[in-house]
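Sample intake sheet
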Amino acid sequence: MKTEDYDMLYKKLILYSEIPPKEFEKLVRVSRVCHLKKGEYFQQAGERPNKFGFVISGILRLYYTNGSGDEFNKNFCVENDFVAAYSALLQNRVSRLSIQAMEETTLLVIGYKDYLQLFNQHLCWQILGRKIAENLFIKKEEKESQFLLDSAETRYLKFLKEYPDLEVRIKQYHIASYLGITPVALSRIRTKLRRKLT
């Protein structure tokens, strides 16, 4: 792992909590680098998660699969994002969520038990954990409100704002699944928006 990759992680972490350099060094010592090829999994449904990651490069999709084999994209994680099957991780249970690389992806991975040891050694890690949990709750609530209150077009525009370069990096049907619409409906929205711009 390059020094600048750790610098990127440190800059992300101190947005949540003041982390002394010595404490960050502890995190670095218990972390490892993980390289995923396109299509490989960071976490599969049916497994009990025991780690979380920080995305250095690449894209991951978080999705559910129903009994008929249909897939529903819950979220995407890109560079500078944290990723985990959080609910199952915190409850120490089998996850229903799969996390898959959509292109070659590099992560810095930390075992959850290792993180908990840090958590009990310094207040900064407790603050970090609380802040990340708060952000996840806010994102979850915002997405729920979008599905209940916003039109598909509005949801698409918000997607473009949240993930400005993702549309050219992944297939349209993945975006449609994330938005809760069909690929045909997404195509119509994109055509309508292009006409507005001409």
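Comment: The CA atoms of residues 144 and 150 lie 10 Å apart. DSSP finds eight helices and eight strands in the chain.
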